[in-house]
Amino acid sequence: MKALNSFGFPVLRFNFRGAGLSQGEHDQGNGEVDDVRTALDWLDNEYHLPLLFAGFSFGAAVGLRAACADVRVRAAIGVGTPVVPVAEATEEPRVYALDFLQNCAKPKLFVSGARDQFGPRAKLEALVASLPEPKKLVLIEGADHFFEGRLRELREAIEAWVKSALSSQHSALS
């Protein structure tokens, strides 16, 4: 959020259905894709600007699904994207299907900790290698899934990629 806001972009952070004080019940990632679509609709109606999606963990897994399919979204960022089953204390492990990314030709950035227990390096590298360009994977050494003690590096990675993506788009428009 801070990285994108540093460019002056309006940023919307929200809780998915059933999380925090939000209404509804958790829907195993299905209804949560609709939550992201609703958020994108709100941003588009409020600001009428090109959209950039960024999501963390569960938010990346379900949000990228909505963002890749939405023509208004120009680029997408997945932070701590889970590529192995994630177990919650009260339910069976969740497995996120990321095969939709094979058709996502938008600029994509994936940032994960090199010690991310839900995004092992080899699996994440294989996923990103299989995706269409443009794409970039940044692994932050020493960081876990929550980037504890490494939030500065996370922010810098996102800012550098956005700056590069913006200058590339400006060159293409000139």
3D structure, described in words:
The protein contains five helices and four strands, in the order H-H-E-H-E-E-H-E-H. Helix 4 links the parallel strand 3 and strand 4 (about 135-140). Helix 2 packs across helix 3. It has about 170 residues and is an alpha/beta fold. The mean pLDDT is about 90. It has a four-stranded parallel sheet with strand order 1-2-3-4, with helices on both faces. It has one domain: Rossmann fold, CATH 3.40.50.1820. Helix content is about 40%, strand content about 15%. The protein starts with a helix and ends with a helix. It has helices at about 1-5, 30-45, 60-70, 120-130, 150-174; strands at about 50-55, 75-80, 110-115, 135-140.
Strand tally: 4
CATH architecture: 3-Layer(aba) Sandwich
**Which class in CATH terms?**
Alpha Beta
Number of domains: 1
Gross morphology is globular
> What oligomeric arrangement do these chains adopt?
single chain
Overview features:
5 helices, four-stranded parallel sheet
How are the SSEs placed, and which strands pair?
Layout: H1 2-5, H2 30-47, E1 51-56, H3 58-69, E2 73-79, E3 108-113, H4 121-129, E4 135-140, H5 151-173
Parallel strand pairs: 1-2, 2-3, 3-4
Helix pairs in contact: 2-3
Task: Characterize this entry briefly.
The protein is α/β, with parallel strands linked by helices and 174 residues long. Helices cover 38% and strands 14% of the residues.
